[in-house]
Each structure stands twice: as structure tokens, then as C-alpha cells.
Amino acid sequence: MNPLLEVSHVCYSYHTLSGETQALTDITFSVEEGEFLAVVGPSGCGKSTLLSLLAGLMQPEQGTIHISQSPVSRRQTNIGYMLQKDHLFEWRTVYQNVILGLEIQKRQTAENLAHVEQMLKDYGLAAFKGSRPSELSGGMRQRAALIRTLALDPSLLLLDEPFSALDYQTRLNVCDDVYQIIKKEKKSAILVTHDLSEAISMAERILNLSKRPAKISRIISVQFQETELTPMKKRQAPEFKDYFNEIWKELNSYG
Fold this sequence. Notes:
globular
């Protein structure tokens, strides 16, 4: 069985009048159906650049990126991208926000709208369908943003530090919420984060990037003896500290 996502020998550089800055070099990895992968690395190493390439917003200078065996392009519709901010529009209700993608793509079928209704119910937002985003808590806004992304039924979710704008307590709770929603919807996901605890508690594998020009220094498989743990409970598991120390030591070895 072929992986959902295949990234092979990808390189990318930024070009300005002052010269060339190599961001990524020889990046090769894959993501299986239903897998949750986290990407960590030093600040400015190119993590968000990698997500932009995976989303088809930019094209690699060398190498290839395939999803479901087809080259990724700017017109990709089976990739969902969740940004640091929720970008909910205040002049639209919660319901109008979560169906925005369906409106734009003219996919407001009875089946798709029924799926949205069910997600709003399942994830605690049904009572707020007619509310404005400003009436929601930070965690509820992120759930609404995720439902908006899932409404399009993407094969792969790209999460670019989606919890960074939240306070610490809310961040922990939303981390649990988002993880469980993604698992229930049986989606594959790639999370970019600076938070090692977040990466360890959510991902099955962690891709460590080196300092720029970034290459993959290591891919760590994360396994807990007790299965079916939420991210919050994983933070309390005995294996958690070992993974944290291992990754922290490697990141700090870059200097």
C-alpha cells in the first residue's frame, strides 16, 4: 500500500536582490493514511516553508511531493491548511463561517451540509451556530476553524502552530480537542510546532529538522505503553519525559 504523502529529496531556496538563502535541503519522508506527524526544529529553520511546499503554495526547486500518487499543486483540494489564527469572519455567524469553504467551492450538497451539522453537534458548537465569533472562547474558535477545514473532507491536514495564540490552559484543552476530532474523523495530519510537549503528546512520529539550511536530522517514533491516551494523559505518562529530554538534547546540539 502506497503512503498518502511522499516527499522525495526536496530542496528550496529564497532568492532576493542580496543573494540566495537555502531553506531546505534533501527533505525525504512519507506519511501514511491516518498518521499524525509532527515537525520540530530550531526557530527559523524552515518548518513553515515546508508546510507551504506541502500545500502547493510554493514549488520545490528540486525533488518531488506527491499526495495519493499525484503531484501536489496550487489547486489542490484534498489538503486542508489550519493556520496560527482562526481567521473567522466577524460579520458571519459560526455556521456561515464553517460552510465558507463549501460555498467557495460550490459544494453545498445535502450530504456535506449534514456532515457539518453533525460535526457542530459532536464537537459542542451546535448551540452557537447563530453566534458571532467574538462570542466564542479561544478554544471554541479553534474548533470552529477546524470544522471549517474538515467540511471540505481533505485527505491531509496541515497544522501551522494552531494553538500558539491561546493561553497555556486553553492550549492544553484545545490540543486534546483537536487531537480527538482528527482521530475521530480518521484524518492524516502534519503539525508544525515549537512546543516539544505538544509534538510528543499528539504525534506518532516526530520529524526533527536541523538549523538552516534544514535537513532531516532524525525521525523519532513515539510510542506509549498504554494505548488510547489523550494528549493530556500522555504528558503524565512515564515515557513522556524520556522523549522530551531526547529531543531537547538534539535540538540544543545545533548551537
